[in-house]
Amino acid sequence: MSGDARLRRPLIREQTVATLLVLALIIVLVLIIALPLWSLLSKSLQNASGGYVGLANFATYFATPSMVSALFNSLGVALMTTLLVVPLAFAYAYALTRSRMPAKGVFMGIALLPIFAPSLLGAISLIYLFGNQGVLKGLLFGHSIYGPIGIVFAEVCYCFPHAVMIIATGLRLADGRLYEVAEALGTKPTRVFFTITLPGVRYAAISAAFVVFTLVITDFGIPKVIGGQFTVLATDAYKQIVGQQNFEMGAVVGLILLVPAVLAFFVDRQIQKRQVALLSARAVAYEPKPAPMRDALLLAFSSVIGLVLVAMLGMAIWASFIRYWPYNLSLTLAHYNFGEFEPGGWEPYLTSLAMAGCVATFGTGLVFLGAYLVEKTKVPMPLRSLAHFLAMLPMAVPGLVLGLGYVFFINAKSSPFGWLYGTLAVLVINTIAHFYTVGHITATTALKQIDGEFEAVSASLKVPFWTTFRRVTVPISMPAILDIAVYMFVNALTTISAVVFLYGPSTKLASISIIHMDESGATAPAAAMATCIVLTAIGAKTLHVVLDRLVFSRLQVWRKR
Amino acid sequence: MKSKFLVGVGLCLAALIASAPIASAQTRTKVTAYTALENDQLQPFKAAIEAGVPDVEIVWVRDSTGVITARFLAEKDNPRADLVIGLVATSLLLFEKQNLLDEYKPKDSDKLRPGFRDTAGPYTWTGMDAILAVVCFNTVEAKKDSAAAPVSWEDLTKPAFKGKIVMPHPASSGTGYLQVAAWLQIMGEEKGWAFMDKLHENIAVYTHSGSAPCVQAAKGERMVGIGFDMRGAKEKTNGAPIDLIVPKEGVGWDLEATAVVKGSKNLEAARKVAEWSATKAANDLYGKYSAIVAHPDVKSAPPNYPADAEAKLVKNDFAWMANDRERILKEWVKRYEGKAAPK
Question: What is the pTM (predicted TM-score) of this model?
Answer without folding.
Answer: 0.89
